[in-house]
Amino acid sequence: MNYRPLGRTGLQVSEISFGTWAIGGAWGETNEAESLRGLAKAMDEGVNFFDTADVYGDGRSERLLAKATKGREDRIHIATKFCRAGDIHDPANYSEEQIRAYCEASLKRLERERIDLYQIHCPPTGVLRDGAVFDILDKLQAEGKIRAYGVSVETAEEALICLERPGVQALQIIFNIFRQKMIAEVLPKAAERGVGLLARLPLASGLLTGKFSENSSFSADDHRSFNRNGEQFNVGETFAGLPFETGVALSRELGWIAEGRGSMTHAALRWILDFPEITCVIPGFKNVAQVEDNLAAQRTPSFSSEEKGRLRAFYADKVHDRIRGAY
After folding, report:
1. What is the rounded CA–CA span in Å between residue 63 and residue 44?
2. At what angle do helices 32-44 and 288-295 cross, to 10 degrees?
3. What is the enclosing helix (H) or strand (E) of 21?
4. Residue 32's pLDDT is what?
5. Digit-coded pLDDT (tens) for 46-83
6. Which Gene3D superfamilies does the UniProt entry name for this protein (predicted)?
7. I need a labelling partner for 97 at 20 to 30 A (CA). Which of 33, 86, 157, 250 fits?
């Protein structure tokens, strides 16, 4: 496993880490025993960083991480998120009292005394512009409740706002072959400021595995069904903001990236890892096989300059204008 610095936190984290949204819920049926086996396999293979949130399964994924990492708290780092358990548009949701309550609840579920990275979970842009929330996080950091803090953002604009805040040490961004907008300004500025970047939804909700057809269906409790058009939260969180059938057709055109790389999954993750500004990629998983498949990307050949140019042109010509919602 290769490790990269997480901004200025002093932490070195595995370049392939894992998100735990899928084992918490909203991706169809989950199995606790298989989730724990997946977490154990990842750690056995050198993964030392996991991303979660208080709303993933109403705390389920935080509790699973507590169980899986017991006795390894000093070696396995956890990032969690807050604010979406309440009304994200209500100013009271960002009061010091409420943020402290969110933090203490996560600490209890994680069974830890300190959160390694505490992230604001996709708040409205106005909350980030106002900036009062960062002052509260500064207090929690000074008290030792959190080691560092960051923000999970939806748009490049939000990322750039956060990069102006000196206390922000990490940003979580939607970044994959279908979502390349962050390359122009966000990646270089983050590198300049020493801010870590976590690449979420690296497979565009599975589109970039190449395994879907236009007739693929998802269970009612899977966000790929109930948020397909942004019905519940930002449309960009599902299929990169692309209409599903459009995404399937575009992924079919990308089949060539798998040549010499084993699979589209390996190639899609490798493309992200080829950016030195990225700290880590955080694919999800629901079983051991998916953990192993994602980890294979670290042994996958990098993209050539010509191939990278081909993918930039593909995004500009065929993808950019089809993405729905602000990003």
Report:
1. 20
2. 30
3. helix 21-24
4. 87
5. 999 999 999 999 999 999 999 999 999 999 999 999 99
6. NADP-dependent oxidoreductase domain (3.20.20.100)
7. 157
Give per-residue pLDDT as tens, 178-233: 999 999 999 999 999 999 999 999 999 999 999 999 999 999 989 999 999 999 99
- Which single residue is written with the structure tokens 């009271």? 92
Render the burial of 79-107: b for 16+ CB within 10 Å, e for the rest: bbbbbbbeebeeeebbeeebbeebbeebb
Give the integer Cα–Cα distance in Å for 324 and 230: 9
Provide the annotated active-site residues.
56
Beta bridge partners of 80: 118
Low-confidence ranges of the chain (pLDDT < 70): 26-29
> What is the Cα–Cα distance from 36 to 45, expressed in whole angstroms?
14
Is it true that domain 3-203+276-322 has CATH number 3.90.1300.10?
no
